[in-house]
Amino acid sequence: MSDESGSPTFIIADFSDDDAANENLPEIEFRSPEDEAWYGVDVWELCDSLVVTFNGFSFEYDEVYSPDDFKNSDELKEFEERFRACSVQMQDTECATLAQGTKVCATCPSVAGDVKFYDAIVVNVSREKHGVDEEGNEVCGCDYKLYWNQGPFVNNVTSAKVGDICLVQEDKRMKPKVVTFLKEARRQLLGEAPQGKETEWQKILKKVTSAIRDHNLDPSVPENQG
Predict the structure, then answer these.
(1) Dist. CA 180–CA 50, nearest whole Å
(2) 17 φ/ψ sector (left φ>0, alpha ψ -120 to 50, else beta)
(3) CATH number for the domain harbouring residue 146
(4) Number of C-beta neighbours around residue 176 at 10 A
(5) In a domain, 217, yes or no
(6) Region 194-219: what's the mean pLDDT?
(7) Does a structural domain hold residue 55?
(8) Which has more confidence, 9 or 148?
(9) CA triplet 215, 221, 223: central angle to 5 degrees?
(10) Which of 37, 140, 158, 194 could form a disulfide with 162 if both were Cys (CB 3.0 to 4.6 A apart)?
């Protein structure tokens, strides 16, 4: 997805009281259904729907998901797996942590020049002696062969350097808003009764959510920011 409008990014705040709970949680990334690339995102609630906001892009690229979007538990599980803690840029001094079989998130070669991140598996590492730059920092010259799980080179192997690779984090904690949404979607799949009576404000928000979805205000996925 590409934002060519040049319009500013708007962040619509959710005035909830879970800021303290979020303070030590990792930032999250999301694998978009549009192109299967990973994007840094934020999330907020609109009634019982989940809005995914792509970092660095204006609000018209937001994606809105409703708890009733999922036909079965497999679809819900697949959606849950699209969220994870943000991958971290690999440093030159960390090349020893990569070995055959390591899962990474890396920039995929693109004829169009787009910089997008996809999951891949390290299948080979050609170790090279490290050098130093003008400031005395270690510089890795190793070559990594990556087998791509997604993207334009899916099921193929290409070469990558340390600057192309991000390390996938093991932190499984998730933003409370995502957890709450998944619980509500699971509740609806199981046909369980909602807890508490729906308020007038919730009814209004539900109508707003429906209007947003009907007018398709999430047209396409923005270009990856890394």
Answers:
(1) 9
(2) alpha
(3) 2.30.30.140
(4) 15
(5) no
(6) 60
(7) yes
(8) 148
(9) 145
(10) 140
